[in-house]
Amino acid sequence: MRTIKFITLFTLIAASLIYAHEKKEHYKVKSDSTKDTITIVGEDTIAVNGIPVNTNGNTVVAELKEEPFELKPAEQLFAHLHNKIIHFPIALTLVAFLFSILNIKQQSHCTYQSIKILLGISLFASISAYFTGNFQITAFIGDPKEWLANTHRLSGIISSILILLWFIALFIERIKKYSWLIGIFVVISISLAGFLGGVLAH
């Protein structure tokens, strides 16, 4: 019965994290080119490359239609790996923290083992997220969000260190029953990292 409760909690948290991102529309920006065909009537530009536009001073805003999205798993599986991996340490540390809170009174050996497994996978995923994130951070160099990307990276590093400390604490008998206190800092740190990452992604 207890195992069923844990599985249910894990499923609910994982599902909420996966669907937490609000669906937003993203628009493609068409770059200027000398090869563009511009249709002008009087002094007004009415179309660029056959696409109707509205003029607002010197700015031309094209009403572009997005092409239908095509799923290409072979290409998209390894694209933006950081964005895919990062959900694991967030979800798993939250579940580990819930298990820790539920285990404060009973001190079940089985639950401690489950927490160790969750944190072990989470630690591996957070280290992977760091390295994949370093590849993606180059896109923000010189961007107004560069400081935000650096803050996000720092919060991710702090989260990984805290997860490691929590994991180690579970192997030390005299302090493992208080290890959930480290979990509080992990939850705060990784939530901050996730929030900043969400701002960067959108």
Provide a descriptive summary of the structure in words.
- It is a single chain.
- With 202 residues, this protein is an alpha+beta fold.
- The chain has two domains: 33-63, no CATH class; 79-201.
- The chain is built from seven helices and four strands.
- Strands 1-2-3-4 form a four-stranded antiparallel β-sheet, with no helix packed on it.
- Strand 2 (44-48) and strand 3 form a beta hairpin.
- Helix 1 (2-18) packs antiparallel against helix 4 (87-102), helix 4 (87-102) runs antiparallel to helix 5 and helix 5 (109-136) runs antiparallel to helix 6.
- The longest helix is centred in the middle third of the chain and has 28 residues, at 109-136.
- The two termini are 41 Å apart.
Question: Briefly, what is this?
Answer:
The chain is built from 7 helices and 4 strands, in the order αββββαααααα. About 8% of the residues have low confidence.
Keywords for this entry:
single chain, 202 residues, alpha+beta, 2 domains, 4-stranded antiparallel beta sheet, 4 strands, 57% helix, elongated
Strand order of the largest sheet: 1-2-3-4
User: Which structural category do the helix and sheet elements fall into?
Assistant: alpha+beta
Cα-based radius of gyration, to the nearest Å: 24 Å
The helix fraction, in percent, is 55-70%
Summed over residues and divided by their number, the pLDDT gives a mean of 77
Strand content: 5-15%
Distance between the termini: 41 Å
Question: What is the count of distinct domains?
Answer: 2
Low-confidence runs (pLDDT<50, min 5 residues)?
17-33
Number of helices: 7
Tell me the number of strands. Answer: 4
Shape call: elongated
Major β-sheet, in short?
Answer: 4 strands, antiparallel
Element-level helix/strand string: HEEEEHHHHHH
